[in-house]
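Model: Ready when you are.
Researcher: Fold this.
Model:
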Amino acid sequence: MNARIVVIEDNETNLDLMSFLLRAFGHETLEARSGEEGLALIAREAPDLLLCDLDLPGIDGYEVIQRLRALRGLDRTPAIAVTAYAMAGDRERALRAGYDGYIPKPIFPETFVQQVEGFIAAGRRPSSAPTNRPTMAQRGD
């Protein structure tokens, strides 16, 4: 189930971590540091999945998803918001904007790839996202 995944993230540490984890599980990552760069990459590469931060320089993640959904032939690309926006209502806002899923930061390396692969396995435009909450064992309970 190897996939080509575009990761749009302006924080170098977060970008490196997500890409490293995905590559460790056999996925190909294509990296962008801005919304504009990410959209150009998507149009050129037609990936299997998009992971996108919402707080980006230039156009933000909300504009990225609006433009992606307007691209004929790419409008069904599954997209997950991976973001530090984790206040009440942020997940719902991302889903209403057009994202298929939501993973709050900080990501948990132990579960991140499994969460992402859940979207890949579900096929195009899955309807719900797994949560990014650590299990009791991960929290040390």
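Researcher: Now this one.
Model:
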Amino acid sequence: MTKHPRIVRLAGAVAALVVLGSPAVARADAVTDWNGYATTAIVTTARQAPQVSPLSYAMVQGAVYDAVNAIDRSHRPYLVLPAANPWDSKDAAAATAAFLVLVALFPDQQPALQQLYDASLAAVPDGPAKAGGIAAGEAAAAAMLAARANDGRGGPFDVVIGSLPGEWRPTPPAFVVDPTAWLANVLPFLVPSVDMLRSDGPNPLTSAAYADDFNEVKEVGSLTSTTRTPDQTDAALFWQTNGPGLWNGVMNTLAVDRGLSSAESARLFATANMAMADGVIGCWNDKYHWRFWRPVTAIHEAAGDGNPATEPDPGWLPLFATPPFPDHPSAHACLSSALVHTLQDFFGTDKIAFSAYSSNSRTTRSFDRLSDAIKEVNHARVWAGIHFRTADMQGAVLGKKVAQYMRAHYFQPIG
């Protein structure tokens, strides 16, 4: 007898996670300062889930960009180009835009944010330049908050719970239903429609490609794997963190170390965070389009998948508990790929060495190239036992599409 899917209606509760703590980085100006303050507000204090935090980052950094760009006037605006003079204070503009958006997002943090804002403004000499910067920041923040009003954040969403082979259903140990499924219907920041980001989809259950993915994650992603190396285990734990928080720490360090101007830093943070936001939105829409089961379900129930090359193991457990949403595509791959391709475009090269610290693994990992990181992300989700490799590879393609669209349609130089 065919079993009918169950539907659970969600109202947008956000799962809170304990996320990374990055070492302090040097500060150069209000743009980098407020990027760090945003990480504290979004990741540390509000503890937004990794899939939700890109939306908050994108709102903050998009407003900062428009505020600073109103004074710099070197690139096309994202939403608005407020009236400003070239001598107006970019520090006052950046601080004001970030402060107002963060307070709107997290009103309970207003006292702490107010102290930071007051300190930022105190560092700017009083006068017309300061007043002009504040006005630009106010206009940019107002435009962002108006544009993102009623954008689908926290809205209702029908989660379909399947029962047939290949269909997603809640996973052990908690059997939780995704509290952030509403992400699938959020208005994108950049692309005109998430339909243009649709992935090719999971491999057919009876295919050799599916069997290869299945047997790989079953072996190397097992809690008791004897083939996963210590370094692979460290990488899996390292990337089991708030990716947007980690990546913003990396970008902040790059901005300071490379001596970027405040206008350049504002554009870097805006482009990267908006790309990650659309990567996540597109990813969630794709997840609930395909509704593909997770490895733990697939391995437990392989006897019914119709593939003779897969063997069931009802006692199999992944290295880490499986997140409560469908497998395909990988969210970390979607957002990290969007970020990496954006950084490649911004700096004009892939050959940028960097290091990052994760409090999950309590280790620092170093990379010679930006693309090395996305390769490791794709591996790490398999080593963690929570994704089939195809979900990672197609997630990386989705993220690249976002970056390519942004490069062609946003943030171009003026003149």
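Researcher: Key takeaway?
Model: Confidence is low (pLDDT under 50) at residues 1-26.
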